[in-house]
Design a protein that fits this description.
alpha/beta, Nucleotidyltransferase, domain 5, 3 domains, two-stranded antiparallel ribbon
Length: 311
Amino acid sequence: MRIYLGIDWSHTHHDACFLNEGGLVLSRLTVPHSAEGLAQLDTAREKLGVRRDECWIGLETAHTLLIDFLWERGYVQVFVIPPGAIKGARRRYRQSNAHTDQTDAVVAKQRVIADVVRTDPKTLQPWRPDGLIVRQLRAKVSLLQFLTQDIRRLDNRLGAVLARYYPAALQVFHEPTAAIALHFLQAFPSPQAAATLTLETFTRFARAHLYRQPARVLTACFARLQAPYPTAMQAPFDVGKVARVFHRQLAAPIPIGLLTRIARPHSEARPKTLPKRPQVIAQAAHGLRRQLPAIRVEQIAIIEGNGVIRL
């Protein structure tokens, strides 16, 4: 005998519905998102007299402790169904948008999920947990994408501020968010401060911050700084502080090396096919750096045991 369990999950509770092979509802329950609540799902299955491998389960996400609980308890037929597929499947069960107690019970999400698992098993793939390295890399990619979005947001904000109150600063260096440009904004946070510069002091400033372009490039930078620009009102805030915030975001020691640490498995558990310093990790990290060019860090270090792969 096979049964089908659909779960409408949330961060606080889970609505569940058991169906038999004919699509009839065997049981409905709502359990809290707690150890005791999740155990109630297992108890409900036991009361129906079926084994764990005979219980096919559908839910809409793999990013929840619920799916870890199910896997650890031995439920191997777990299917993660896209929310869009569930939304489309609900149209099967009613022909209009009229609401009655009967139609609402039929199209309840947990029942629809269970019925999709029952009727469309050939279109679904059983969920399987990824290996440790893959899960860690996925988490790091997510973090780097978040940092990329944060840097882009600050980049746009700084550009808008400079275009309004300090347009010369946008033209001095090739990249307004380069390290030398951010140092310049912190040292000379207003057009009035920049007006006091001479070519000699500008050159000393650039060399002090390791800007190694030839003298002709520095002369061109200084000429762009001294070119006439429309005069704006005084900024209602310190542009240098905005630059400092942006500079901290880019230059602060973001613990990329720590966050991309690959835990070395114990020697007795290490698969024979896994090399001591896996090349796949280095290749994946190189790919991350190509895909996320906005992350301006000197290097990404992936630490594997006592060895370090420097990129």
